[in-house]
Structures are given as C-alpha cells and as structure tokens.
Amino acid sequence: MKALRFHKARDLRLEEVPAPEKPVGQQVVLKISHCGICGTDLHEYVAGPIILPVEPHPETGAKIPIILGHEFSAVVTTVGPDVTTVRPGDRVAILPHLMKAGDYYARRNIGQFSAATGLVGLTWHWGGMGEYAMVPEQNTVKLPDSVSDEQGACLEPSAVAVNAIDNAGVIAGSTVLITGAGPIGALSALAARAAGAAKVFVYEPNAGRRARLQAFEGLSVFGDSPEDLLAAIAAETDSGVGVDASIECAGHHAALDLCITATKRTGTIAQVGLFVERPQVDMFKLCEKGIRLIGCWGNDITLGNRLVALIASGKFPVEQIITGRVSLADAVGKGFDALTQRGNDHLKILINMGA
Ligand SMILES: [Zn+2]
Questions:
Q1: Contact present, 241 and 171 (Cβ < 8 Å)
Q2: Ligand 1 geometric centre to CA of 38 (Å)
Q3: The overall pTM is greater than 0.90
Q4: Domain residue spans in the chain?
C-alpha cells in the first residue's frame, strides 16, 4: 500500500509499504477515507523528530520511519475475533490516544495522561496518511450516515476543542474568549457556541484567519489591537467584569496574558495551545483575580459518541474549518508546505485518500 512516512525533518516520503495483516484480538483494520494535517504533524515536519520515536517506543515498539496522521475517517475492512462494537463496512473516525491496559489513568478513561501512552499516527505502527491502518477497537468511533467522512476526519481536533470547553466550564449563557484562531481555536469557538455561550469573542492577529472566522455565525472577532477586544468585553459582559472563561489556543505568552486580563475574577482559563518558549505572564494578576488556570492535553476517548451526536445535530458544523483538500500524492507540496508557509490563512487541510 502507499503511505506517507516521516524519515526526518523536511523529509516525508510517499512509499510503498506492507499493508496491515490479519487483525488479532481487538484490532481493527481500516481503509482510510480522509485524514487531516495537524499542527503536531507540522511541528514534526519542520523540527522533528519531537515525539516521533527514534528508538522503539516503550509501549508500542514503533519507531521512525512512521506513517503520520491521527485525524482520520475510514471504513472497517476486517476485525479481530474479539471485536464486538464495529463490523466490516462500518464507517468510523478515530480518537488516537492508545489506552495502556491496567494503567492508573487508562482505568479512568483518561489514558492520554499515562506516562508512556502511544498515539496512532505518531508513536504507533499505523497512521491515517496511508491507504490502510490497524488500530485497537476502542479507538474507533462509529459514524452514522448523517455525519460525513470529512466531518469524521475533524473528530479528533473537535475532541480537543470540546475537552477545552468542558475544562473551562462553558455553559449556556457563558461569555467566552478564544485566543488564537487556528483549527483548534476555530473549533473551540464553534464548540462554545454549540454549548450555548451567549458571547464568543475571538482574538486572532492573522487577518486572513480572522476573515474566515468572521464568516462563521455568532462570533465577535478581533485582532487589530487588544484594546479593541478589551473595550468590547467591558461593554458586553455583565457589569463589565470580563468573560467567564477563556480558551487559550495560541500557546504564546501575550495571548495568555490577554486571557488573564480579559477573564473575570474567579473565572477560568483553559490552556490548550502548546508553548514553544516558556511564557512570561502576570501571575500576580492571576492570583489576585482568583483565576483558575487549567492545562489541557489531548482528549479523552470516551468523548467520541457525544461528539458524533453533536455534529449530527447540526449544532457543531466542524466541516467549516476545512480550507483545503489534497490527494496523498500532493500532500507534502500542497498540504504540509502550504500550511508551514508564514502568514498562511489555512485552518485545516484534509488529505482525500480516494483522490
Ligand atoms: Zn492533532
């Protein structure tokens, strides 16, 4: 089968590799439909290997060259003898965190926090940027006819966004600020709106991305200056106290500082963006305002059916973040290179494996 494999930074190769063999136990073989290119994939492409294993991964044994892709939809082709929840022909999406049997966190269905957990498409033998993949049954999420393959390929980043909204305590009537409108920020804004937030403010310095978010309904989009945003928040929140919750998706100290300023006293900040550099932020102000700051990491694999139901309801139009579609043959030039170009305004590029 054909697969896009990471060898080293700036060296992704479209190669002929063996397809998965007959699945055993609870393994499921999938024919990939669509796969998203994620910021994590881009970090690996530009500066990797970062989390891609150079030596065999302690849990999975996988090592580079690795087939990338952890955001994908697929059709089940064959299942192991112990699989009970999916059958050949079922359409599925995946949530990529592998659960380590017996692990303290895995027993609580938050296996993304296990020290040595593996991830499909990063530290596993298979990923979504190949024609076929094999994954454990529990990482698959069945898709009904009302959820498209493209929406299915957005399930994983959607899980990150909904996990952030949950962590931030967003409820009906909440006022919310999202900083950084990349794919996760855009999905977090859509998720906050779906959760019933009364006001969703978005701050994004990239004018192209801002224009994309302005096309979504029900968001107040800023980015020219923090002052404009803060003035709007003062004018449009109860007694001008600030937003109930902020979702920081930029992974930049200026953005986190803005969240600390914009969030009301006793409000919550969910930190989703990953910092490349250690941030300089006003921690005195964080304490003085009694703000709760919560780190977010990945997503919990039990979110799948809830997300699928939310997407099927029409309240969470995750496909709106798709700004490009490429074939596997074009994935490096028109996908990875386009997304790493400075100032590009893409949100999500999907690889259509059937194209
Ligand atoms: Zn991702």
A1: no
A2: 5
A3: yes
A4: 2-142+317-352, 161-295
